Amino acid sequence: MADAEATVGEVLLGRIAAQAAVLARLDEAVRADEPDAVHRMRVACRRLRSAFRTYRRLLAPGATDELVAELRWLAAALGRARDREVLTERLAAQARGLPPECGPERVAAELEDWGLTEYRRVRPEVLAALDSPRRRALADGLAALLADPPLRGRAGRAAGPELARVAAREQRRTAERVRSALAGGADGPDAVEERGRALHEARKAAKRARYAGETAVPVVGKPAERYVGRMKAVQEVLGEHQDAVVAAGALLGRAGGSGEPFGYGVLYGLQLAAAAGARRELPEVWARAARPKLARFV
């Protein structure tokens, strides 16, 4: 565990330095198309962006705006490849579990061929991003920030209480979005779309809360680890909902050209069921993450 007397600014800089190092190390792994490399680089981008946004009150106004924008750009460039990879893995695995009358192997093979074609189409975007001046400027910008941190006076406060305060704030923020997502009960197309957006926003809030907890772990230890675990559980339920909705949309676009339309229809039904199951599960999972004492690290 880190020094219990550390300031919150020191903890924040440690988090930024660690994730910047991860980002730098993964360049060659992504170029070599190593398994999970794109995902890990994308997560490092998200963790850095979240750190800058969540702890912005510790930093000089506007000091990290450009870095946040560039991290968003890089994550988006990586995301198109990663999203297709995840979608293909999900649907092909589910297809192989279909009954024989659904043509499981044929459906799985079609989906894998489609996924590979799509991945190859967007892969050059990833390499172009890594080779771009923007990527080099982002690395230089992170190094410059760490060399001369634009910390404000409040960054000198003791880490423990400040980290707990931020965790409680992110917990409340997530609560607002979860309540909004659970409030929608109408079934019309517009209402369903609005509910989907609300659930997606709740997922992003839970992820940001989780990352805030991760920042606190080196100082706080087990209480922060429990917080991270509960927020991760919320994020995963909401992530399953999002993945199912995206997969359902992809299947609608693919079914017409398949030799096994019945198999695609069954797969589509599985996505709708998975999304509905996630919505049913959310209140119970959130109840465990919503307890006020969860964020009382000190």
Rg value:
21 Å
Mean pLDDT: 93
Classify the secondary structure makeup into a structural class.
mainly alpha
Q: Which residue ranges are poorly predicted, with pLDDT under 50 across at least 5 consecutive positions?
A: none
Distance between the ends: 15 Å
Please count the helical segments: 9
* Helix/strand order: HHHHHHHHH
Beta-strand proportion: under 5%
In total, the number of strands is 0
Main beta sheet: strand number and arrangement? none
Given the C-alpha coordinates, what overall shape results? globular
Helix content: over 70%
TL;DR?
The chain is mainly α.
Write the layout of secondary structure elements.
Elements lengths: L7 H24 L5 H18 L10 H32 L7 H28 L1 H15 L11 H25 L5 H32 L1 H33 L6 H29 L9
What does this structure look like?
This protein has helices at residues 8-31, 37-54, 65-96, 104-131, 133-147, 159-183, 189-220, 222-254, 261-289. The chain is an all-alpha fold.
List the main descriptive attributes of the protein structure presented here.
298 residues, mainly alpha
